[in-house]
Every structure is written in C-alpha cells, then in structure tokens.
Design brief:
Blueprint (H helix, E strand, L loop, with lengths): L1 E3 L2 E3 L1 E7 L3 E8 L6 E4 L3 H14 L2 E8 L2 H20 L8 E8 L2 E8 L5 E5 L6 E2 L2 E2 H15 L2 E8 L3 H20 L16
Parallel strand pairs: 5-6, 9-12
Antiparallel strand pairs: 1-2, 3-4, 4-6, 7-8, 8-12, 10-11
Helix pairs in contact: 1-4, 2-3
C-alpha cells in the first residue's frame, strides 16, 4: 500500500524468477484500469488487458518464459499474489462481487468472494483446442491458479455461446466486473467484512 496525498493507494508488486519464467507484475486497485502487458502470448495479453480495463485495476505485467503453459501459469500466480497483497487485511472492502456479461452470441457469469478460502469452479464451455495463440486448457488453468494465488473463491461460467473467443472474453469481462465490485471500499464498512473479524 502507498500513501498519496493523505489517501492510501492499494498497490503491490510481485516478482517471480524460475528456471522457466521471469515475471514482474504491479497492480493499483484504486485507479482507472490502465494495462501495460507483455506476456509473449497475444490472446493472454488481450485477456489480462480486458481484466484490467473492466475492473479499473491498473496492471503492469512483463513476462519472459519458455513454454506458453508455464507463462500462463506464472502470470496467474503473480497477478493473484499482487492483488491479494494490495488488498492488505481487506478492511472496508465489499468482499463479494457478481456480474453477468453478454458478448454477441455468448453470455457469461462470474461470482467472487475475496475471503481467504481459495476455490475455483470454471466452466467456460470452450469447444476448440485453441483460441488464437493460446490453448483453451491454459485459459481454464489460468483462472484456477488465479483463484488459488489470490486466495479467492471464484466461480466463472459461460451459459451459452457459439464462438470460443467471445465466450472466453465475456468470462474475463464478467470476472473483471465482479472483482471491481468486490475490491471496492464500502464507505459504511469500518471493519473487516466478516463476522469472524478476519478474512
């Protein structure tokens, strides 16, 4: 977190270097959704940019890596860790978020709980093996790892759709909108959003 002009800005950076990848990510939860993203996978760049734009979370993300699967996996690890780190103890946040997004032929839903109870239920109904230059399997895996690394409960599903690109993009837009809602500070909430007193 960063103090700017008397206001706490919820920001965080995460770096990860392995024998397979090198990742740097920086997020600002209290901004306008700017994206500066390079993963080497065009469709992954598109999905992360979409997530940033519609969640209003600024995301800077740079990756060097060997295999596309490793890149997608480590992007999810670092992005989730950065968002969790920026949330701090979660004081004052709404905590829950839900969204429905239509995109042409597709309709997608997302529900999020930012309590530290990681779980993912993903059903995008992707029928092909790839979307552009990214494996459909890696898209599903990315969302599962994002939930684990963010320590969030994330359910994302596509109700229907005829185009895999539209289904995946609608799902990420829905996730972005539900995250935007969940990370928002509720001016009436002066405490941790749990009857346990901790999340």
């Amino acid at each position: 977190m960063l103090l700017v002009g008397g206001t706490v800005m919820r920001t965080a950076e995460v770096d990860r270097k392995t024998l397979e990848t090198e990742v740097h990510v920086k997020v600002n939860l209290d901004s306008v959704g700017r994206a500066d993203v390079y993963t080497g996978i065009a469709f992954l760049d598109h999905l992360v940019t979409t997530l940033a734009f519609h969640s209003l979370i600024d995301i800077k993300l740079y990756v060097k890596g060997d295999l596309k699967h490793h890149i997608a996996e480590d992007v999810a690890i670092c992005l989730g860790q950065a968002i969790r780190k920026a949330l701090g103890n979660g004081e004052g946040i709404v905590r829950f978020g839900f969204a429905a997004v239509p995109m042409d032929c597709s309709l997608a839903f997302s529900a999020v709980d930012l309590a530290k109870r990681p779980y993912a239920k993903i059903d995008l109904k992707l029928r092909g093996k790839r979307i552009e230059d990214m494996s459909c399997e890696d898209i599903n895996h990315l969302l599962e790892i994002l939930a684990t690394s963010m320590q969030a409960n994330i359910h994302v599903w596509t109700q229907y759709g005829a185009n895999d690109h539209h289904k995946a993009e609608a799902a990420f837009k829905a996730l972005a909108l539900s995250l935007k809602q969940a990370i928002t500070i509720d001016p009436r909430r002066k405490s941790i959003p749990s009857v346990k007193g901790v999340i």
